Fold this protein.
Amino acid sequence: MENKNCDYLIIGGGIVGLSIANQLLQRKITNKIIIIDKEAELGLHSSGRNSGVLHAGIYYEPGSLKAKVCVSGANRLKEWMSERGLKINKCGKLIIPQKKELDPQLDNLFNRGKKNGALIDFVNAKEIEKIVPEANITSGRGIWSPNTYVVNPLDVINQLKKELEEAGVKIVRNVKNWTFNRNLSSINLDQNIQINFGYVINSAGLYADQVAHKFDVGKDYKIIPFKGIYWKLRNNSPFKIDVNLYPVPDLNVPFLGVHFTPNALNNAVSIGPTAVPALGRENYNIFQNIQPINAIFDLSFLGQQYFLNKEGFRKYVHDQALQGFPLLFLKAAQELIPKIKYFHIEPSKKVGLRAQLFNLREKTIVKDFLCINGTQSTHIVNSISPAFTASFSFADFVIDNYILPNLIK
Ligand SMILES: Cc1cc2nc3c(=O)[nH]c(=O)nc-3n(C[C@H](O)[C@H](O)[C@H](O)COP(=O)(O)OP(=O)(O)OC[C@H]3O[C@@H](n4cnc5c(N)ncnc54)[C@H](O)[C@@H]3O)c2cc1C
């Protein structure tokens, strides 16, 4: 048995795990860090499959953890990418009410955004028309966010990985199975390797709840996967959309609604992602990786949420849960661009799965980021959007508020 020692073992090499490693390193806390990931490559799940939108901090309840770290995280990531010459599409974002009765929600979003430090302004019908000529003008108002940018998420993951490895961080990939030896403060990998650690950080994304449960942490919580399907504008479509175009979201759920996003690297425009209940945590294609027992549990739990109408969950089901069906997807796109027809769009290969946490005891959806400490361990169990945007500041927050205070001196 080969023995490896580290101060920090990080389980999961997505943006959250890599950013925490990077901040531990930059702040000279330690460079004795080992990251393990179950995949042969990094970025195969949410961190490499997201929209790449660097959010401006508009949506989040003031005082929430998301609100605390989004604006500064976005600024830091933009600066870090610029210093390295990584491509950023500085396109901005327009939010419009897809129905006239949603207009008052703009005031709600505007107030939240301002409190969170987002750079935003109202725009009138003329200005909306100038930004996106074919946009649906329902109430004559929208919100313009000039510094919502778009990046290629894999650029960030690959660059972080490279810099961490150069600084001596070990990234062990293909770790399909590992067992936790509680008394020994170590784990055994299937490759006959034992890793002895001082502290564990669980940033396992879609599986963060299951990893936490192994440490007897967060037993009330379960991740339910929601599928983010994307379509794209066909090359020959007549629409010129070179900014992010978003609807007013249902703030009862942490999904932003189907939107248009210009690519960071080329002229493609993606539409989506949806947020439809998935049949498995890696159910990327229709029949791929279905987990029947889990799916039955998840769907019956979501069914209860529907019947109880917990936190207005029925509205989500009626508006968004079935957008996997092409005609309902098209309807959502038409609420933003009424002239768009089925032949203007085509399915995209891109699909992501949102690792959405629920509190099973309270029967609530967890909207904010959530971290829970265990013995010599911190578990990041809800790292949904905008965790990519916020990653650098979120990492510092986790280090300062969870990891360092929890170290046994
Ligand atoms: C469709 C979609 C669109 C999104 N759009 C945006 C956006 O535009 N902007 C934004 O800011 N955010 C966006 N997000 C959210 C963002 O992608 C996530 O918040 C972020 O990527 C979460 O990162 P993570 O490191 O926690 O998880 P992940 O990226 O899932 O990383 C977790 C890693 O852990 C590994 N792992 C899992 N289990 C184990 C195990 N048992 N042992 C070892 N390794 C394990 C996995 O292989 C994976 O590499 C989007 C998400 C989705 C799904």
In short: DSSP finds eleven helices and 21 strands in the chain. Residues 89 and 223 are 32 Å apart (CA to CA). The first strand starts at residue 2 and ends at 11. The two ends are 29 Å apart (CA to CA).
